[in-house]
Amino acid sequence: MNNKGNYGLFTAITMIAGTVIGSGIFFKSDDVLRYTNGNMVLGLLVFCIAAIAIIFGCLAISQLATRTDKPGGMIAYAEEFINPKVASAFGWFQIFLYFPTSIAVVAWVSGMYTCQLFGIDGSNLVYCYIGAGFLVAFCAINMLTARLGAIFQNAAMIIKLIPLLLFAAVGMIWGNPTQIVSDNVELMKTTAVGTAWFAAFAPIAFSFDGWIVATNISHEIRDAKRNLPLALIFAPILVLAAYLLYFAGLTSYVGPDVILEKGDAAVAFASMKVMGPMGAKAVLVFIIVSVLGTLNGLYTGLSRQPYSLAIRGFIPCKETLGKESKRFNNNPVNAGVFATVIVLFWLVVHYFTVEAGMQGDVSEIAVCVSYLNYSALYVIVMKLTRKGEIKNKFMGYFVPVMAMVGAAVILLGAMSNPLFPLYLLICFTVMAVGYYYAKQVLAKTN
Question: What predicted TM-score, i.e. pTM, was given to this entire model?
Answer without folding.
Answer: 0.79
